[in-house]
Predict the structure.
Amino acid sequence: MITAIMTDPATGKEPAKAMEPELSQASAATLPNENELVTQARRGDLAAYDQLVQRYQERIYRTLYHMTSNHEDANDLAQEAFIKAYQALKSFKGGSSFYTWVYRIAVNKTLNFLKQRKNRSHMSLNDLDFNVENNPDLVALVSDKTPRREAGLTELQEKLNEAMLTLSETHRLVVTLHDVQGLSHEEIAKIMDCNVGTVRSRLFYARQQLQGQLVDYLK
Amino acid sequence: MNPDSEQFEQLRKLLTLKRHEQPPPGYFNRFSDQVIARIKSGETGEKEMTWFRKLWLLLETKPMLTGAFGAAVCALAISGIVFSDDTESPGSTAHNAAAGLTPALGDGMAVMALNQGSESPHFSSSTNPVSPTLRALFDQPQFNLNNRPQPAGFGFPGN
């Protein structure tokens, strides 16, 4: 399931692998089954729910962060999404995976939040990690722009986030889930409750918009 | 490779930058504890909002509703102005009545009487708290400065 989500059908690569929880086969085998944890959490077992939160917190937080470009907002929304999911756990039918279900709660919460926040959007960006210096694609993109590579990456980060914020919420979500988080079109369609064709067309339009805005930074 | 991916290959490379944005160190170690603590404290995951805040957010997010609300406020203001003009416009009866009062009240009071509404002379739309009738009392000279007591002079025929 997770492997299917992480594989990009367009390229066959795993674009977000570095950011996902690293689950080796051995550790995955010892981890409790998701359904078991959900069943236990439904009975009020907070330790079981704690494990579910730990399992998906990173992916949920990162998606919300990329949607809001604001760490504090993403933190609040992610926590509230997990709290709301726990309260609504009894209504979870199991038609989809818990992961998709909680993702949908978080995404809907964020879309509502962004509609309300429209007039007061400001960025609170996280720092770039040290690995960014080892990304040859990014280094190549900024090396021609400025002799000071570090300053170039920070500037690029700001411009990229500004461009993302100009997209509509649904278009930003599709780009975030696919190009940043690495979810498949099918998985995005489930989360957004729409068909795959809609996901593809939104992705194409969003990329066009971004490309137009970031043309100075693209060779 | 998908032609879409070729077209947007540079953009996809640029977007990988976002994967390098990291929250503060140790953030994810505390995250689940905070969630569980909030669940234990009985939070529902929904922020409480006042009715005014809810209305404001509704107006902020629904342009059609905002327009309708604005139109309703304008209509209310216009109707208020029109209604106010109706009550302030002098009727013929009022003019006649004011004309009858003129000799008794003097020129100043005649003008004031003309400005009175036709419904009742006691309810004025003026913001002046002093009733015209009372003002008439103040307008009347209460005493004449020229009528000061004069010292009586007693002349003696011999002086």
In short: Chain A touches chain B through 60 residues (CB under 8 Å). Chain A is about 65% helix and 0% strand. The first strand of chain A starts at residue 127 and ends at 128. Chain A has a mean pLDDT of 82.
